[in-house]
């Protein structure tokens, strides 16, 4: 990979469609399985969901022998620590990320940003303008889709098509796809997306509860965690690996 650290965000102005989940899953997959050096900037004020998730993960690892041994073996094999999660506001996210990269001994390949779910929040547009790539989950709910397409068109017109900014592209992908739904519904939506000249990824994410599965209990399989990658058994049928592979191709990993 080239020496420039990439700034990447899963971003949308509609809550509950998976931007925080995909930030964690992509960061953990690339850092723990693929060997990239990743950092995450959590600027989703006030909940700071990823910071809270790391706290839960750490507490469970420290109190559970199974997870403690799993973590020990993982980090010994990797010969590196868990990726850092930096708390920030939308306004100072880029400054905090840049300072961390500058002062960190090892090269950081990708910084993932978890930004607030509205472009009206202070500093959000400025942070989005500093991204290299934005990935936006969409669902086949009409209200969610209309809101998301409005967000995507705004970012595309203001930032992607403006050579003054770093942003190379915004890419939409389907999330929470129910296979029982009529396929022509997606065909109609995809024609609208194409007519708006927005980019739609080929990978879709099925509607499955595993995307909400965190560390819990004695020895369950792991899916969403800031300290471990998703369990390979749970990745089957989730399309997560396909999604990250497609993202890797887009951002030229």
From TrEMBL:
Residues 9-213 form the CobQ/CobB/MinD/ParA nucleotide binding domain. It comes from the Bacteria. Gene3D superfamilies: P-loop containing nucleotide triphosphate hydrolases. Coiled coil: none annotated. It holds the Pfam family CbiA. This is Conjugate transposon protein.
């Amino acid at each position: 990979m080239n020496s420039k650290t990439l700034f990447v965000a899963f971003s949308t102005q509609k809550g509950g469609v998976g931007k925080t989940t995909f930030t964690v899953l992509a960061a953990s997959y690339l850092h723990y399985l693929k060997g990239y050096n990743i950092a995450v900037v959590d600027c989703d004020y006030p909940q700071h969901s990823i910071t809270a998730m790391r706290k839960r993960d750490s507490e469970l690892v420290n109190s559970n022998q199974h997870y403690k041994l799993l973590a020990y073996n993982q980090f010994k094999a990797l010969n590196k620590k868990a990726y850092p999660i930096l708390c920030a506001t939308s306004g100072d996210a880029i400054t905090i990320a840049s300072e961390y990269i500058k002062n960190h001994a090892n090269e950081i390949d990708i910084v993932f940003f978890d930004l607030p779910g509205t472009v009206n929040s202070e500093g959000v547009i400025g942070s989005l303008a500093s991204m290299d790539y934005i990935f936006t989950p969409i669902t086949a709910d009409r209200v969610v889709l209309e809101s998301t397409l409005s967000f995507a068109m705004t970012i595309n017109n203001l930032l992607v098509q403006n050579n003054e900014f770093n942003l190379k592209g915004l890419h939409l992908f389907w999330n929470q796809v129910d296979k029982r739904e009529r396929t022509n519904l997606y065909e109609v939506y995809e024609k609208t997306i194409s007519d708006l000249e927005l980019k739609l990824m080929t990978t879709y994410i099925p509607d499955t509860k595993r995307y909400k599965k965190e560390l819990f209990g004695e020895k369950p399989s792991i899916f969403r965690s800031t300290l471990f990658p998703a369990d390979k058994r749970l990745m089957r049928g989730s399309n997560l690996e396909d999604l990250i592979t497609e993202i890797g191709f887009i951002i030229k990993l």
